[in-house]
Specification:
Layout (H helix, E strand, L loop, with lengths): L2 H29 L7 H20 L8 H21 L6 H32 L7 H14 L7 E2 L2 E2 L1 H28 L3
Antiparallel strand pairs: 1-2
């Protein structure tokens, strides 16, 4: 690929990752019942609701999971994958494209939680204001993931539960997302 195509590919990936993150935060915030009065929650609701409102009429929530927003994350990653393939001059087979975009979704969710847990841990270690909107939203999103280990991994006054959860998420990327990527690649090429 030429340098210009690499730059264009990077810009596409950044733009689509930002869109997917917006919808994924909406899914996570609703699933964890994050504080709606948080300015970040209101921002996310305001900018995702026009897209999600018509979809939610057809695809309602399942328990506390906003399936319409999850569908939008998947579709965003599918379109991104299709554009990247198009830039390379390759048109994948549909089953491979669907599996690759599902692998992208799984990997994106795992990476999202790794980054949020790492950022939240770093900010809390630096004694940032716990009432900052981003810290409150991140704390609400990761609390259900950390809750099973909370208090069980304490050494001295340091809680290692975020570290253990990040290691588990990294292993999930290797053991779950990577094989799905391999399967999708084989199917995309017709093999």
């Amino acid at each position: 690929m030429s340098y210009l195509l690499n730059a264009l590919s990077m810009l596409i990936q950044v733009a689509f990752a930002m869109i997917a993150t917006l919808f994924l935060v909406r899914v996570a915030a609703e699933a964890t019942r994050a504080d709606f009065h948080n300015p970040l929650s209101q921002f996310i609701y305001r900018y995702t609701n026009p897209v999600l409102r018509p979809i939610r009429r057809v695809l309602p929530n399942w328990r506390r999971i906003n399936l319409a927003a999850l569908l939008m994350v998947w579709l965003t990653l599918l379109i991104e994958r299709l554009l990247i393939f198009g830039l390379g001059g390759f048109m994948p087979l549909l089953p491979g494209l669907l599996v690759l975009s599902l692998a992208d979704l799984l990997d994106f969710v795992l990476l999202f939680y790794i980054i949020v847990i790492f950022g939240w841990s770093l900010l809390t270690m630096l004694s940032a204001d716990p009432y900052q909107p981003i810290i409150r939203l991140a704390g609400a999103i990761i609390e259900p993931v950390l809750r099973p280990l909370r208090g069980r991994m304490v050494v001295g006054s340091i809680d290692f539960s975020p570290t253990v959860v990040v290691i588990v998420l990294l292993l999930a990327r290797i053991l779950m997302a990577a094989p799905l990527f391999d399967l999708g690649s084989r199917l995309a090429q017709g093999g």
